[in-house]
Amino acid sequence: MLHCHPLFYSVTYSILELSRPFFIVASHLYTV
After folding, report:
1. Is the CB of residue 10 less than 8 Å from the CB of residue 3?
2. How many separate domains does the chain show?
3. Taking every pair of C-alpha atoms in the chain, what is the biggest distance, in angstroms?
4. What angle do CA 15, 18, 19 make, to 5 degrees?
5. Per its UniProt entry, which superkingdom is the organism in (predicted)?
6. CB-based contacts of 14: which residues, under 8 Å, 6+ apart?
7. Ordered alpha helix ranges (H), the chain
8. 1-32: per-residue pLDDT in tens?
């Protein structure tokens, strides 16, 4: 269904790549 849309996949991948540092910082804050 969603796999038929490469644009949707690329947008989701870019969003995950951009939000990855924030998740890393948040995980460090929660562990400390």
Report:
1. no
2. 1
3. 42
4. 85
5. Eukaryota
6. none
7. 6-31
8. 555 678 888 999 999 999 999 999 999 998 87
